[in-house]
Specification:
The chain is mainly beta. The protein has no helices and 11 strands. The protein is about 0% helix and about 60% strand.
Length: about 180
């Protein structure tokens, strides 16, 4: 059994705040870092027994105060098989382009199909719009020293990039001490 908890908030002490400056790319929008005190972050993860993990996270805007984002999830893994599900709430934030509250649920599964090989599938559903956000699947080889994988995903009509197809690959070299190199 194990338990991990975190909480934090950052404070801008002196000089110009780079996050408060206008950014044409919009990378600063809704970050919670534009004011002298950032959003408050809370999180907890744990496991009651091997294979099962639980977690929750919370992002609070202390100026209003309101919950800007929250999530809860559970996962289970045994003998190479894995399954997890998460719920995510994102509050409306016009500065970030989020015009209404969002609620999502997602699930992932994985199963071994040969030595060092695993098949994966995932999907997420937009509860607010009652539509899928993304579905996908892939295959991965991982012998403990080399990881190679490929995945394909398709986004749904309510995603920020609707109806797009994405192909990704992974390559990673792993050292015996835990160090990794790859992309």
């Amino acid at each position: 059994s194990w338990f991990n908890m975190l909480a934090g908030q950052s404070f801008h002490l002196a000089g110009p705040n780079a996050f408060a400056l206008a950014d044409t790319a919009g990378t600063d929008a809704g970050s919670g870092l534009a004011s002298d005190s950032s959003y408050m972050v809370f999180g907890a993860t744990g496991s009651l027994f091997g294979g099962l993990s639980l977690g929750a996270k919370l992002l609070v805007d202390p100026a209003t105060p309101r919950v800007a984002r929250s999530g809860v999830g559970v996962g289970y893994s045994i003998y190479g098989y894995s399954a997890s599900t998460q719920y995510l709430y994102v509050a409306a934030d016009p500065a970030r382009g989020v015009t209404q509250n969002q609620q999502e649920i997602a699930a992932q599964v994985g199963m071994p199909f040969a030595d060092y090989w695993k098949l994966t599938a995932h999907g997420s559903w937009d509860l607010t719009a009652n539509s899928y956000l993304e579905v996908g699947g892939g295959a991965q080889y991982d012998d403990g020293y080399l990881l190679i994988g490929a995945q394909v995903s398709r986004t749904g009509p309510t995603n920020t990039s609707p109806n797009s197809m994405t192909f990704t690959t992974s390559f990673k070299l792993k050292g015996p001490s835990g160090g990794t190199f790859g992309f």
